[in-house]
Design goal:
It catalyses: a 1,2-diacyl-sn-glycerol + ATP = a 1,2-diacyl-sn-glycero-3-phosphate + ADP + H(+). This protein has helices at residues 8-29, 31-50, 54-84, 90-122. The chain is mainly alpha-helical. The radius of gyration is 18 Å and the shape is globular.
């Protein structure tokens, strides 16, 4: 069953507005998102310099952007859990811990790709 609402270009415009609203909320309320975004602004130009070909540059850029994406998802999970209840519940803690683990894995992936490409370039 289709959801009621706007369709076509109007729906796309609405989705764009909601996405910007989400980015503003993450920037305003999530310290980790601000830190990772600022680091991404530094790392993205470095990725262009560090990578020696399009494949390497793509890997460097994708892994940095992936960290920011996973942080947004983690922040959304935390917001929903906190909205339901701020009292401690094992499943709430589990959901938050799993989101945190996803961020950690994306950071490790990013660090390992950057390290391998840097080693290949300089050694």
């Amino acid at each position: 069953m289709n959801k009621p609402g706007r369709t076509g270009p109007a729906r796309i415009l609405d989705a764009y507005k909601y996405s910007l609203k989400g980015l503003r909320a993450a920037w305003r309320h999530e310290e980790a998102f601000r830190q990772e975004s600022m680091l991404a602004l530094i790392m993205l130009p470095v990725a262009i310099w560090l990578g020696t070909n399009a494949s390497q540059r793509s890997i460097l850029i994708i892994t940095v952007v992936l960290v920011v994406i996973v942080e947004l998802i983690n922040s959304a999970i935390e917001a929903v859990v906190d909205r339901i209840s701020t009292s401690h519940h094992p499943l709430s803690g589990q959901a938050k811990d799993i989101g945190s683990a996803a961020v950690m894995l994306s950071l490790l992936l990013c660090a390992s790709c950057w390290t391998m490409i840097a080693v290949e370039r300089f050694l």
